[in-house]
Specification:
The chain has 174 residues and is mainly beta. The protein contains one helix and 14 strands, in the order αββββββββββββββ. The strands form two sheets. Strands 3, 4, 5, 6, 7, 8, 9, 10, 11, 12, 13 and 14 form a twelve-stranded mixed beta sheet that branches. Strand 13 and strand 14 form a beta hairpin. The longest helix has 15 residues.
Length: 174
């Protein structure tokens, strides 16, 4: 029985975790887990073009394109203790993700459309976390921000960002 349990957990660990032999610790391969969901929220896996309906406890992976429908929202607890909330009719993805520990991670979050709120509870090194809201890119450290990205009826792209706490370095790429 002990052999079976050990084997079963090793198979599980290979799928969702990797082992860092230098630090002697297990590191998750996923970004976070759904802790609150209302309405219809889906994730399109970029690797396999598979669309999954998200529910409580679903893992979010680095290659996921997450989308909320009308009257829907989603809250994710990231592996670094960051809370990410996505509002109705929103779409987002992660263009970069490397996780070693809650304070040693690299993450690029990209809000393509809609509303997002992120509370980074653990301070990051300068340049390690970037958030793009439409046409605005921000480097964040121990920060809480809200962002909206949408297009007006005449086709103008609009990006709105609110800094709730902490500090942010905003860039406006061409």
């Amino acid at each position: 029985l002990i052999f079976f349990l050990g084997f079963g957990s090793r198979v599980f660990a290979q799928k969702e975790f990797e082992f860092d032999p230098v630090a002697s610790k297990v590191i998750p391969k996923y970004l976070g887990e759904v802790i609150l969901v209302k309405g219809v929220v889906t994730s399109k896996r970029k690797a396999g073009d598979k669309t999954v309906k998200l529910k409580l406890g679903t893992k979010i992976w680095p290659a996921d394109l997450v989308e909320t429908k009308k009257k829907s929202f989603l809250k994710i607890m990231m592996v670094d203790d960051t809370f990410l909330t996505l509002g109705p009719k929103s779409k987002m993805d992660f263009t970069k993700f490397k996780f070693k520990s809650k304070t040693d991670r690299i993450m690029d979050v990209n809000l393509l459309r809609g509303k997002m709120r992120i509370h980074f509870r653990k301070r990051a090194k300068e340049g390690d976390i970037r958030v793009r809201v439409g046409e605005v890119a921000m480097g964040v450290r121990g920060t809480e921000i809200m962002g909206n990205a949408f297009m007006t009826k005449n086709g103008t792209k609009v990006s709105q960002v609110a800094l709730l706490s902490g500090s942010v370095l905003a860039e406006f790429p061409n």
